[in-house]
Amino acid sequence: MRAIMESAFYYIYLLFIMGTGIYLIAKRKDKISYLFFGLACIILGFGDAYHLIPRSVGLFTGTLDNPSEQLAMYLGLGKLETSLTMTAFYLLLYYFIYMRIAKKRNLALDIVVYVLCLSRVVLCLLPQNDWLSNSSNLTMGIIRNIPFTILGIIVIVLSYLHLRKEKAFKLLFLFIILSFGFYLPVVLFAGTYPWVGMLMLPKTICYMIIAIMAIRDLKIAKTTN
């Protein structure tokens, strides 16, 4: 039953998040900001698929907790892919916010964001992560998530300062905070307590709610034009 319910949730999420991205891009007309948000959704879903599909296979075969060498490799590479695409998601969200407020970006902040993204990518690609064996290296997990967390804080602050008065995105900052609140315990404790990994489910729901915000905002924009 767990395999069916959890896998169904994964596939619904993947179809929804990538479908939302395609919808935003297709319906954006001349609104360039939705292009960035749509790309963010597609990239996020694409990366998550690399991890969630092997996880679903492990659930159905009963080997998730003790995977074969091949499945462990796919699970580990899926985590790497997800780590990289989550970084791209927040970078695109950063662009989206500045496109929304139609202000010239802060060059110094741009540089900080680029450095954080590059640092995150480099740290994720280090062999010490041992992705191919799907190992849980707590030290590397902490180190590679430091620039990612700082990037998330920047996006949270910007969304709070500039979008909290908007009808659709007024709670964007809150759901980003919640997504990190569910994600970071997995990084810290899932290797010791596997059940903590279940926190990835509410984290995923946060992303779906953020995508719904974008759909709602696009509809509001159409009715006001």
**Helical content band:** over 70%
Q: What structural class should be given to the helix and strand makeup?
A: mainly alpha
> What's the structural domain tally?
1
User: Which term fits the overall shape?
Assistant: globular
By CATH, the topology is Rhopdopsin 7-helix transmembrane proteins
Poorly predicted tracts of residues = none
Encode the helix/strand succession as letters. Answer: HHHHHHH
Question: CATH class, anyone?
Answer: Mainly Alpha
CA-atom Rg in angstroms: 18 Å
Averaged pLDDT: 89
The CATH architecture name reads Up-down Bundle
How would you explain this protein's 3D organization?
This protein is an all-alpha fold and 225 residues long. It has one domain (2-224): Rhopdopsin 7-helix transmembrane proteins (Up-down Bundle), CATH 1.20.1070. It has helices at 2-27, 32-61, 69-101, 107-125, 138-163, 172-189, 200-224. Helix 1 runs antiparallel to helix 2 (32-61), helix 3 (69-101) packs parallel to helix 5 (138-163) and helix 4 packs antiparallel against helix 5 (138-163). It is globular. The relative contact order is 0.11.
